[in-house]
From TrEMBL:
Pfam families recorded: Aldo_ket_red
Coiled-coil regions listed: none
InterPro entries reported in the protein's UniProt record: AKR_Detox_Biosynth (IPR050523), NAD(P)_OxRdtase_dom_sf (IPR036812), NADP_OxRdtase_dom (IPR023210)
Protein species of origin: Azohydromonas caseinilytica
Keywords (A to Z) from UniProt: Oxidoreductase
Domain NADP-dependent oxidoreductase: 17-344
Protein name: Aldo/keto reductase
MF-aspect GO terms: oxidoreductase activity
Length: 353
């Protein structure tokens, strides 16, 4: 059972170092199973739950918001549970989908406020503890993008206006703390600078991918977070399943594999579906086995004990998967093994960035 907590940034939020991610709820996981996973997480000491208006993933107009609705039904089923958990959600950035925010390629203040109100309604709660911008309004190399391209910059709502909208939510008691996701070092520095300069809420967290096949955080974002006193929430610590070994033998096209990369064609087209990411994962997984560890345990232990990470977000499709992920918490990797992992990174770099 988890018996330790960490403080997120300079906020008052104290969370367990493992967070339950819910992006599978409503697509791969039905409501009853979702409730069982939530019950088990609480039973084992997890007090941190992360969701988003866009979930479940893969996103669709038909299921938009279903994950928050499932969480809302769980809260209604267990009166009093809401006070025991730190609840995080997100407003989608400039819409990549017509059914979110009308498909507007911007993140306007009124959109932030409305999205929060809609999430509160679906969740059936009065306040969201940590409210995050899911991806930046401006052009950034995210979701598999590798390069920043000035030519792709378009006029969008500025950071100060976004912070003013978040400030309104905080002052209205709808949000306790704010954060970002899929953010860059420059973005972190600007959000902190402008907040301090204008007397607006300071970001507490940044939620970015961080795993053995995507360590872009180590390329400068870690420095920005450290000096700004902003906490990292690491998502996809198992690389969308690549680092569990489930794709080692038959690749990503095994129709009998229940994993997302095998079941959803759209997932194969993303960074996690790159052949280079699968090849690198196979090397890490073989290294884990050669050292008496399961691939899952080594990948999670590496993330759990990393000084850069405040809390690691784990997404699961069953209670058994949740238990496996939580059981890895007590694993400490010896220095020589960590050095060998760094050597593997030197060879394979970050194929899933």
């Amino acid at each position: 059972m988890l018996d330790t907590t960490v403080t997120l940034g300079r906020s008052e939020l104290r969370v367990t170092p493992i967070c339950l991610g819910t992006m599978t709820f409503g697509e791969q996981v039905d409501e009853a199973t979702s409730h069982r996973i939530l019950d088990r997480a609480l039973e084992r000491g997890v007090n941190f739950i992360d969701t988003a208006e866009m979930y479940p993933v893969p996103p669709s107009a038909q299921r938009y918001g279903d994950t928050e609705r499932i969480l809302g039904s769980w809260f209604r089923k267990h009166p009093g549970v809401r006070q025991r958990v730190v609840l995080a959600s997100k407003v989608a950035g400039p819409s990549r989908y017509d059914w979110i925010g009308g498909g507007v390629p911007d993140l306007r203040p009124e959109r932030i406020v409305q999205a929060c109100d809609d999430s509160l309604r679906r969740l059936g709660v009065e306040c969201i503890d940590l409210y995050q911008i899911h991806w930046p309004a401006r052009h950034v190399p995210a979701f598999g993008g590798v390069y920043f391209e000035p030519g792709k910059l378009q006029p969008v709502t500025g950071i100060e206006a976004q912070l003013q909208a978040l400030d309104r939510l905080v002052r209205d008691g709808k949000v306790r703390a704010i954060g970002l996701s899929n953010e860059t070092p420059w973005g972190v520095a600007e959000f902190v600078r402008i907040a301090e300069q204008a007397g607006l809420p300071r970001i507490a967290t940044v939620q970015n991918p961080y795993c053995l096949v995507n360590r872009v955080v180590d390329n400068g974002l870690d420095e920005a977070l450290h000096h700004a006193q902003v906490s990292l929430l690491a998502y996809s610590p198992l690389g969308f399943g690549l680092l569990t070994g489930k794709y080692d033998q038959r690749g990503l096209n095994d129709v009998d594999n229940p994993g997302r990369l095998a079941q959803f064609e759209s997932m194969k087209q993303q960074r996690w579906g790159r052949i280079e990411a699968l090849q690198a994962a196979r090397h890490y997984n073989a290294f884990a086995r050669a050292n008496g560890l399961t691939p899952t345990r080594m990948a999670l232990a590496w993330c759990y004990r990393n000084w850069r990470v405040a809390s690691t977000i784990v997404g699961v499709t069953s209670v058994a998967q949740l238990d496996e992920n939580l059981d890895a918490w007590g694993t400490e990797l010896p220095p020589q093994l960590l050095r060998a992992i760094d050597d593997l990174r030197w060879t394979h770099r970050d194929p899933a960035q």
